[in-house]
UniProtKB/TrEMBL annotation:
Pfam families: Response_reg (PF00072). PANTHER family: REGULATOR OF RPOS, TWO-COMPONENT RESPONSE REGULATOR ORR33. One of its GO terms (cellular component) is cytosol. It comes from the Bacteria. It comes from Enhygromyxa salina. Residues 7-132 form the Response regulatory domain. This is Response regulator receiver protein.
Length: 290
């Protein structure tokens, strides 16, 4: 299932400017999270796959510290070093725009664009920069897929035209089995068997149930009884297990709204289950059948 909204992160320690930028992003119909320090930004980047980041270069290392330009450049380096599947576009924001060396350095170190503060409402506005960035990245994704021999396109290109994108982009086939094997439970993704601990299997099962019953909607981890304590640790372990056994699955198909809720972005008819084996997980089976 294609996600319905772009997801943005704003890293800015000026509350007034932060509110202005968030209003602009929300007016575009995008979801937005915010951070006022490098520490907060890195925590969000760990849990959420963002489409783009607006990054103020002069930020503090953590709350209560003084902002410094080098902290922003360090965070930029961390962002652009993320794996391609997780690497968001980056628009650098700086009040030092008249010093072109900062802008050139940001571009050299991987930023996609920069805008000067205060914004002038024209080409330097966040809205214009965001639209240009997303159009450019959409075109790059389309061209990258088109270069793969035998690929079939199915991307939305600039201007909203729908294009074929590649059979590999289709949703995965998920089959919940749940048989215990060496204290672990099994499932299949695209025919490949995976083994997860019982807790992680049931957590993944909850996400699958929610995808079938409420497509496109996020599930709050507070509603998952198996992990009422240690939710972050459980998610991180599930993510690690999936990444080791099916590389790229988590980043491609699981979304985080930035507020502790997750969504398995797979159509309900791509999720099947073995009713006999799943009887060992009674509540999950009841929800799958309902």
């Amino acid at each position: 299932m294609a996600r319905t909204k772009q997801v943005a992160l704003v890293v800015e320690d000026d509350p007034t400017l932060l509110d202005l930028i968030k209003e602009t992003i929300e007016s575009l119909g995008h979801e937005v999270s915010s951070a006022s320090s490098q520490e907060n930004a890195l925590a969000l980047l760990e849990d959420t796959m963002f489409d783009y980041v607006l990054l103020d270069l002069k930020i503090p290392l953590r709350e209560g510290r003084l902002p410094r330009l080098e902290i922003g450049f360090t965070l930029l380096e961390r962002i652009v070093s993320l794996p391609d599947a997780r690497r968001p576009g980056v628009i650098v924001m700086t009040a030092h725009g008249d010093d072109h060396e900062y802008c050139r350095r940001a571009l050299r170190e991987g930023a996609d664009d920069f805008i000067k503060k205060p914004f002038d409402g024209g080409k330097e506005s966040p809205e214009a920069a965001i639209k240009q960035l997303l159009a450019r990245r959409s075109e790059e994704r389309y061209e990258a897929v088109a270069d793969v021999p035998g690929s079939v396109a199915r991307e939305r290109g600039p201007g909203g035209a729908t294009r074929e994108a590649g059979a590999e982009q289709g949703p995965p086939a998920i089959h919940l089995i749940g048989t215990y094997d060496r204290r672990r439970c099994n499932l299949e993704i695209n025919g490949k068997e995976l083994l997860l601990s019982e807790q992680r299997f049931r957590l993944f099962g909850r996400l699958a149930v929610h995808a079938k019953r409420a497509p496109g909607q996020h599930l709050s981890l507070l509603d998952v009884p198996e992990i009422q304590s240690g939710t972050r640790q459980a998610l991180n372990r599930l993510r690690k297990d999936l990444e080791e056994q099916v590389p790229g699955f988590w980043d491609r198909w699981i979304r985080n709204d930035g507020h502790g809720s997750y969504c398995l972005q797979v159509p309900g008819d791509s999720i099947t289950y073995d009713a006999d084996s799943m009887a060992a997980h009674g509540e999950l089976l009841v929800k799958l059948r309902s």
